[in-house]
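User: Hello, can you help with two protein structures?

Assistant: Certainly.
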Amino acid sequence: MIYYYFVIPLLFSCVKSEDTVSVVTPETVSPQTETVRQEETEASGNEPTFDTQSEEEQEYLLLNIPAVCNDNNVRIRDLPSIHEGSIIGMLHKDDMVHLKAETRTTETLDGRTASWYELTFGEITGWVFGAYIDIYNEAESREQYRVIQEKKQEITDLPVKLYPDYENGNGTVIGTIFDENTELVLRKHVQRVQIGNMARDYSLIIYDKPSLKNGNAIGNLKLDDYIDISQIAEVTSGDDYYFWANISTDNKITGWIFCRKYGEQLAEILIPYFDNRWEITGRINTSGKLWTVRKMVFQKNSVWRMLDVRDKPGLDGSKVLFELIPKDTDRLVYGVEILSMTEEEDVIDGQTDHWIQIKDEEGRIGWVFGGYTDVERGGAKYRTPEALVHSVLGWH
């Protein structure tokens, strides 16, 4: 499965309203989109200009034509407005879209005047500011589609998935920006944490934006304080990986805290959503239950007993594929890699745990009940995003 990854320098700023967080790029990034430049203007206090629209003017011209995006980081919204429309997707240069409708009125954003287009892009249907869409006559457009598609096909023959599937829960991508050297993914992440001994001193400083260089300190945390996290920003710059948390405190301070910086080897273990950890990869109906399957990344457990490995989670309706058996009497443990895990738990032999899809040392894959596996390290048994956030901010 292939995913787009998106990039931004660490020195970015975010503007947070009650409902949305707007990602703003620094001037070093190439000219951006409707939202990036527009919301930077809003942050500085200079209001953009809009054409007023009465209720009678809220009419759309129906279209049925192909078109192409002409810039990167172009936001798709559910309504034709940066104030009322929520971000539901993202376009990048040369993405091919199909236009369904156009507003009869125009707005001026980023110094450019255009109408809004309703369009479809893959499974997403929404509105994009028209200055970032190019329309050609049908012949030219079809030819451009063909050239772009062939170019993309040279990169991969696999389908490209725009966003990982978190069903609007924790991990859902709500903002993405990129440039040549750095990438940022802004994700929904709702979690209440009590600050504990795992939090570093730098994580106790609250900033007005997620930048150590450009951010201003607006408050401090102390041990035993409770914070409510609403979003996580994961930033990759070269071989360095960072993540920030957008928080609010019980005394009404809202801002960002710098959680950790890792090299690549530790990042795949400890960054909450590294490689889209905890994404929903499917559902399996067996044993009278519908199991939600979640992706696991860099998770290894130990098996201390002979264990049946099944083709599906659950005891009923599944069959044994093979058995894990220690290779000799001196070796009582068998290491397995966890590929997936059911979100739901099961109770077997008095133990409550998840079913896990494992790959053994011979490359064989199947499902086992997690209660029969263990870990030697400390901390949570499974590296879920919530567990990883707690491991850097909470009590050990």
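That covers the first. Now for the second protein you mentioned:
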Amino acid sequence: MPFPLEMCLVKPSINDSCGTAYADKTKKLIADSTIICIYGMSLGETDKTWWETISDWLMIDQEHHLFILHHYPKLDKRFPQQKMQQAESVRDTLLKYEFDQQLIYTNTHIGVNHPIFSMQLVKEHDND
């Protein structure tokens, strides 16, 4: 019998077939969080399970905040409105995953091409 293509392409199927508790642990981590920051996660159907889980989490408590760092490789710095358009495109995509429209604007924060990896880190020193 041929190996089902779905097992190679659909992330929930891969997780289920591996027999790990990955999904359960991740859902618990989400449930126990007040802030979630996402970088590098697909907005596509392969992560639908996670976006729906996050949507449910966001609606549970008004103190929950979601930060999405979205990368848009074609961004032209001469046209700053492109950042706003990309953020709006991300919001439109989230609506497909049953996100509450009001919470998309109040509790979901979208950064486009944020220089997260060039931030200055603070190094702690021992006070011996």
